[in-house]
UniProtKB/TrEMBL annotation:
Transmembrane segments: none annotated. It comes from the Bacteria. It comes from Aquimarina hainanensis. This is AAA family ATPase. InterPro entries: NadR/Ttd14_AAA_dom (IPR038727), P-loop_NTPase (IPR027417). Residues 5-169 form the NadR/Ttd14 AAA domain.
């Protein structure tokens, strides 16, 4: 059985985690975002925002974690796996902060290909900031644009998920991905 690897991506505070959690309650296999764990680990070492202080190191850790998730998903025997962000997100965020992308980042995007990409648009009504999510709404819009541009440049056709209840958004994703 070939497992479809499906990415749910979008800028900060667009509902990705809520959707992933809801898909899990429906019995779907999901991989969670790893950037919060990396940020929290750095904060334990007195680095408030690793992404801002050392974006290349932060991005390298993300890349390694997302490759691990991709490889693990390839071993699962299920029809599809939903992933909170994909490897190209690393490039999009590096582009957002005007950092060059190491060659291995681009190579990883070429080597590890996803089957579908669902892109959540910026949504002002649900946008919040916290200790790990520091971007304001205008920055979220800019990140969204970088995500769309990055995935498109890698020959992905992003499917935009309409706003609505978590159930409506999950139903939309499930109907398109099955």
């Amino acid at each position: 059985m070939i497992t479809k690897k499906i990415v749910i991506t979008g800028g900060p505070s667009t509902g990705k985690t809520t959707i992933i959690n809801h898909l899990e309650t429906k019995g779907k296999t999901c991989y969670h975002e790893i950037s919060r764990a990396i940020t929290l680990e750095a904060q334990k070492q007195n680095i408030e925002q690793l992404f801002l202080e050392d974006p290349t190191l932060f991005s390298q850790k993300l890349l390694e974690g997302r490759i691990d998730q991709f490889l693990d998903a390839a071993q699962k025997e299920t029809s599809c796996i939903f992933m909170d962000r994909g490897i190209p997100d690393v490039i999009a965020y590096m582009n957002y902060i005007n950092q060059s992308n190491p060659k291995k980042f681009i190579e990883a995007c070429d080597l590890y290909k996803y089957d579908m990409i669902f892109l959540l648009p910026p949504w002002k009504e649900i946008h919040i900031t916290d200790n790990e999510r520091y971007e304001n709404f205008d920055q979220a819009i800019e990140i969204h644009e970088h995500l769309l541009e990055t995935y498109n440049s890698l020959s992905y056709d992003c499917i935009e998920v309409p706003t609505g209840t978590v159930e409506e958004r999950c139903d939309f994703i499930l109907n398109k991905s099955m």
